[in-house]
């Protein structure tokens, strides 16, 4: 018997079911790079369902014109209900919707934690002018937006969510440090500027301290840069974490801001 690839590492696979009339968009995006790897190694159990397969008419109709008139088409409730009921996907089932709860790193973490709690979650992608309101009232558990912008369909939004959530679960195995210090991580700060070789590029040099080999001092310098950058670019995040401590104020004074921000 072959052992499941993830069981040895003790990481529970995350199941995500996606409902769409273009399931190939999501499946394709999630087949390459890290997401593809997560699927192959069993960390991500992604199932893309084609709503059109749950239609009952010869034209496989998924949309119709709106009652009361108006522009565009609306997705019919029947095929969506049938598709979800046949698949019995993990809950919560989240409708992609520009008016929904704004997706952010905290929500990504909540969704990642669902692997242990309920096995995973599911995403429903709208198209056209959106879905019949009865889907929102009687089928889904919540609505999620990826920003104050209107897309043509929920598939790109679903891919964004899948990627953000899956990398948190990968992080649990691969590089446990990065979800803590990277932007929106536990520090509540943006990430500091990063550099790689060459040390000088077109006359722009890497700060000397990063090449000093003094790791304790480098860590203090990096923390100072996270503070400088967040104060300048996202002061709202500083307010949200309750300001700057006396120690952090001392770091800000010890190390000036990286001039290449
Ligand atoms: N008429 C709607 C927009 C429909 S856009 C309105 O005015 O609110 C078509 C579909 O794209 C939506 O049903 C939703 O699933 C998806 N979508 C569009 N913008 C989105 C966003 N910002 N976040 C998540 N999903 C979005």
Characterise the protein shown here.
- This protein has 261 residues and is an alpha/beta fold.
- The chain has 2 domains: 2-166, SPOUT methyltransferase, trefoil knot domain (Alpha/beta knot, 3-Layer(aba) Sandwich); 183-254, Trp Operon Repressor, Chain A, CATH 1.10.1270.20.
- The chain contains 10 helices and 9 strands.
- The chain has a 5-stranded parallel β-sheet, sandwiched between helices.
- Helix 4 (105-117) links the parallel strand 5 (93-102) and strand 6 (120-124).
- The longest helix is centred in the middle third of the chain and has 19 residues, at 155-173.
- The chain is elongated and about 70 Å long.
- The protein starts with 13 loop residues before the first strand and ends in a 7-residue tail after the last helix.
- 28% of the residues are buried.
- Bound molecules: S-adenosyl-L-homocysteine.
- The site of S-adenosyl-L-homocysteine has 19 residues, from strand 5.
Helix and strand arrangement:
Blueprint: E1 14-20, H1 23-29, H2 33-40, E2 44-50, E3 63-64, E4 74-75, H3 77-87, E5 93-102, H4 105-117, E6 120-124, H5 133-138, E7 142-145, H6 155-173, H7 178-181, E8 200-201, E9 204-205, H8 215-233, H9 235-240, H10 246-254
Parallel strand pairs: 1-2, 1-6, 5-6, 5-7
Antiparallel strand pairs: 3-4, 8-9
Helix pairs in contact: 1-6, 4-6, 8-10
The structure holds S-adenosyl-L-homocysteine.
S-adenosyl-L-homocysteine (SAH) is lined by residues 96-99, 125-127, 129-131, 145-147, 149-151, 153-154, 157.
């Amino acid at each position: 018997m072959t052992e499941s690839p993830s069981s040895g590492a003790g990481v529970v696979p995350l199941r995500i079911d996606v409902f769409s009339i273009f399931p190939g968009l999501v499946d394709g995006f999630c087949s390459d790079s890290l997401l593809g790897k997560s699927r192959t190694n069993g960390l991500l159990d992604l199932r893309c369902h084609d709503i059109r397969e749950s239609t009952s008419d010869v034209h496989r109709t998924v949309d119709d014109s709106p009652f009361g008139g108006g522009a565009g088409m609306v997705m019919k409730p029947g095929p969506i209900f049938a598709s979800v009921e046949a698949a019995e996907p993990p809950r919560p089932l989240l409708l992609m919707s520009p008016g929904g709860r704004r997706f952010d790193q905290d929500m990504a973490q909540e969704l990642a934690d669902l692997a242990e709690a309920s096995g995973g979650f599911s995403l429903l992608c709208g198209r056209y002018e959106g879905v019949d309101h009865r889907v929102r009232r009687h089928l889904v558990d919540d609505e999620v937006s990826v920003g104050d912008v209107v897309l043509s369909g929920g598939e790109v939004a679903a891919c964004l969510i899948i990627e953000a959530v899956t990398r948190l679960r990968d992080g649990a195995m691969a590089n446990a440090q990065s979800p803590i210090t990277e932007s929106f991580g536990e520090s509540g700060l943006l990430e500091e500027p990063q550099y790689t070789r060459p040390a000088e590029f077109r006359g722009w040099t890497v700060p000397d301290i990063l090449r000093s080999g003094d790791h304790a001092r480098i860590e203090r310098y990096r923390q100072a840069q996270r503070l400088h950058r967040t104060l300048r670019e996202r002061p709202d995040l500083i307010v949200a974490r309750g300001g700057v401590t006396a120690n952090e104020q001392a770091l800000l004074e010890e190390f000036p801001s990286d001039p290449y921000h």
